[in-house]
Amino acid sequence: MNQREISELRRRWRPEKSAVSRIYGCYVNSAKTIVSDLDESLGAMQQEEAEKYLDLLKKTLSGTLGKNLIDIVFTTGQVADSEEHRLLSALRSSALKDRETRNAFYQKVIDRLDMGDNGYLLLMACDAYDVPHRGMDGETQADASEEVFTYLVCCVCPVKAGRAELGYFPGDNEFHYTAGQVVSAPELGFLFPAFDNRAANIYNALFYSRKPDALHQEFIDAVFHTEPPMSAAEQRETFQEVLVQSLEETCSVGVARSVHERLAERIAQHKESKDPEPLTVTAQDVGGILLDCGVPQERVEAFREGCDQRFGAGTVLNPVNLIDAGKFEIRTAQAAVSMDPECSYLVETRVIDGRKYILIPVEEDVEVNGLPVQFAAEE
Q1: What is the pLDDT of residue 379?
Q2: Who is most buried in 178, 200, 203, 307, counting CB within 10 A?
Q3: How far apart (Å, rounded) are the C-alpha atoms in residues 215 and 160?
């Protein structure tokens, strides 16, 4: 899925837009026991309550592609005959109305999902989207629908104890000091099937994780039974390891700066272009940057081979997961210096009397812990 397709679905998650009629789910306590089963009509709810439920589900379609939103790919064998795909397909075909199928899914999640000491609310809803035709000019034509895209959205929301406060209880006509249970924003969730080329793709699902470095791989394995993807944090760490191991002594400040600058440029250009497709980069692309920096050919080849071994041959990566485009940081055992990437060219490295130094020329005022300080004049 691309950003445009995700945005198209997100716009539906309002009471007046979606075809969602019921909300399903269950409240699971920290002992992994279902405390309450949810099967509620949106039409019978107060508007504020209905909007809150839909807003929680909509959050699973938010974030950055390749970072918070991860493509889950089923094999042909799984689609043809597998327990996990049959269960998801049954949920979808029944529009979540089959209680036995829902309970089977709930139990699969409960058995594997680790939410620590927190209970959680598992929410599900099914929407049927009458997909409007999109003309050559990109405008949609609501009266020229081509197909109905039926899909389900699921999210898992931690339930935590709220702050204890005095509250008024009308039935008792008294105030009591109590702490309620508060439903937090979704920690994870998914959409099935994927909405690719504005049509159903039963070979894919879209997985959501609020924390890019904590994908809840036990949930992915239980629900999709696929190889867990690398988290954004794992991708960055692996990328840095391959650079260091393959470049060895040629991994200088200048090379690190150039790689950061060139990848940051790609991120900025992609954002400016408003291209709905996610930005990608290959080991070949980064290898070209290294060659431009003067890194020897054999080191570049070692880098490309290292990427193939660690990420898989021909893997494409999102530069957003490899660098922090908004920060350039230099860190030693004794200190850390963070600066605007546009000023990274000021950094110099020197070896003086056998000791390594990092030099940053100062052109403006200097503050230490918020206190303006002066430099002593040269003797």
Answers
A1: 43
A2: 307
A3: 20
Q: At what angle do helices 297-311 and 283-292 cross, to 10 degrees?
A: 160
Using alpha carbons, select from 201, 237, 202, 207 the residue that is nearest to residue 221: 207
For residues 379 and 376, what is the distance between their CA atoms, to the nearest angstrom? 9
Provide the residue count of the chain. 379
Q: Name, in order, each residue with C-beta under 8 angstroms of 21's C-beta and a sequence gap of 6 or more.
A: 41, 42, 43
On the question of a cis peptide bond just before residue 186, with omega within 30 degrees of 0, the verdict is no
Those residues with Cβ within 8 angstroms of residue 359's Cβ, 6 or more apart along the chain or in another chain: 347, 348, 349, 350
**Tokens for 271?**
């954002």
Q: Would you say 190 and 68 are in contact if contact means Cβ atoms under 8 Å apart?
A: no
Residue 183 and residue 155 in contact, taking contact as beta carbons nearer than 8 Å: no
> Both ends of the chain: CA-CA distance in Å?
64
In contact, 235 and 321? CB cutoff 8 Å: yes
The type of residue at 253 is: V
Q: Would you put residue 371 in left (φ > 0), alpha (ψ -120 to 50) or beta?
A: beta
CB contact at 8 A, 328 and 257 = yes
Beta bridge partners of 331: 336
pLDDT tens digit sequence for 181-208? 788 999 999 999 999 999 999 999 999 9
Q: What is the pTM of this model?
A: 0.81
